[in-house]
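User: Teach me something about this protein's shape.
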Amino acid sequence: MHLTRIIAIRHGETAWNAQRRLQGHIDIPLNERGRAQAQAVAQALTEDGGADSAIAAVYASDLERAFATGRAIAEAARAPITALPGLRERSFGDWEGRSYADLSVEFPAEAERWRKRDPHWSPPGAEENLLQFRERIDNTVRDLASRHQEQQVVLVAHGGVLDVLYRLATGLDIQAPRTWALDNAAINRLLWTPENGLTLVGWGDARHLDDALDLAIGDDAR
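Assistant: First, the predicted structure itself:
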């Protein structure tokens, strides 16, 4: 069976993650903690010459928060990195930059449709609904995985992208309530085959991030 091993990473933390603001396509950089997380996950994937160190390529969303995280991994792994707009977060249109709390107050009806994951609805000014977003991610991952059979690749993207990957790998409906974590810079493992698509191997490994948190706190204190 021809398979591709995929390590999927959500980008490191940004200021808007900490403030619980919708980022979407707005190009927010990593904050100090996010940069430390990027270095920590890069080290975790490449230390000791283990199986994870055999990374054939890194693919990252072209938004800076994801590409900077991917660049840290690529440099540590000495692997090429490619920016892929197909791995971008879902567009949230006019909602981008607003906090979750503000949305519930200013747009209660629309926010309820968003919380219930209405697959045919999209925020005002947005480019995709959930079905279109899922199709984009599915097509992007299928294309790059098919080019790396019998190899291991790293994908660095966003919370919404990781949510779609989990659902594709487990067969969960697009509207099923989320019960899994989407932590910044956690390690998530999947397999892809032409016959079966994505399957889940492991999810949400964040053990390497303890030192990154300590580092970020130390930097902020100076």
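Now, about its shape. The chain has a mean pLDDT of 93. The chain has one domain: 4-90+128-221. If you'd like, I can walk through any region in more detail.
User: That's plenty for now, thanks!
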